[in-house]
Amino acid sequence: MEKHLKAGDTVFLDFKASWCSTCAAQERVINALKAENPEYEAKITFIDVDWDDHGKSDLVKRMNIPRRSTLVVLKGDQELGRIVAQTGKSQIKALMDSALGAASA
């Protein structure tokens, strides 16, 4: 992840757990949106962060991630947006669109 941020890439972080139903709902929406618009996959670096492994990590503390099912978009060291425990398609699409806009700029 750090190498992508240092390179100025647009990164979409998905803090998730395999047992989390909200995370699974978010994943279904994200995958559907990627299928609808291949530009997301082409221009944004998607990184899954396993909450069970990293929930107490320095990364989580530094970024002030409150819980699993948090989605965050970064470009370099700038946070462009986040969603916490939301599963609505329009909200997730808006976050992905902001990432796409930053990646295309």
From TrEMBL:
CDD domains, alphabetically?
Answer: TRX_family (cd02947)
Entry-linked PROSITE patterns: THIOREDOXIN_2
User: A single Pfam family, by name?
Assistant: Thioredoxin
Which stretches make up the Thioredoxin domain? 1-105
Q: Which InterPro entries does this one have?
A: Thioredoxin-like_sf, Thioredoxin_domain
Q: Which Gene3D superfamilies match?
A: Glutaredoxin
What is the name of this protein? Thioredoxin, putative
Species source reads: Roseobacter denitrificans (strain ATCC 33942 / OCh 114)
